[in-house]
Amino acid sequence: ESFSIKDYVIHQQRQCFCVDGGRIVQVVIRSDTLFSITALDTLPNPLQGNEYMSISNLFDFIETFRTIPSARVEVLYNERFGYPERIFVDRLPNAIDDEIAYLTSGFLPIR
């Protein structure tokens, strides 16, 4: 966010027990808004979920769960640009299958 880059491409993967969990996608962000999502795998079924996020939305996601006392949140930030490369959230530590992780890589500013 401190770089003020509002147009970029990233690769993102959601790891969860959810629709499209584990699929790697290319996310295009324009004016800090989700513009397009393209699957990078060869699975025949189209993407069904729309749970992929811009970098600013990833920061909001982190803050949302940091305000929940029972949630466990782990974040690894990109050394060069400072965006969250890996977010792991366990909403309820004693619950089964509620964990979610976002892996984000391949940040490329576009004009």
What would your notes on this structure say?
The chain is mainly β and 111 residues long. Helix content is 11%, strand content 41%. It has one helix and six strands. It has a six-stranded antiparallel beta sheet, covered by helices on one side. A hairpin with a 6-residue loop joins strand 4 (72-77) and strand 5 (84-90). The longest helix is centred in the middle third of the chain and has 12 residues, at 55-66. It is globular and about 45 Å long. It starts with 7 loop residues before the first strand and ends with a strand. 16% of the residues are buried.
For the residues shown, what is the average pLDDT?
89
Compute the separation of the termini in Å.
17 Å
Instruction: Give the C-alpha Rg.
Output: 14 Å
Output the strand order for the largest sheet: 3-2-1-6-5-4
Catalogue the unreliable spans. none
Put simply, the count of helices is 1
Which key features would you list for this structure?
single chain, globular, mainly beta, 6-stranded antiparallel sheet, 111 residues, 6 strands, 1 helix
What can be said about this structure in brief?
With 111 residues, this protein is mainly β. The protein contains 1 helix and 6 strands.
Q: What are the SSEs and their pairings?
A:
Elements: E1 8-16, E2 24-30, E3 33-39, H1 55-66, E4 72-77, E5 84-90, E6 100-109
Antiparallel strand pairs: 1-2, 1-6, 2-3, 4-5, 5-6
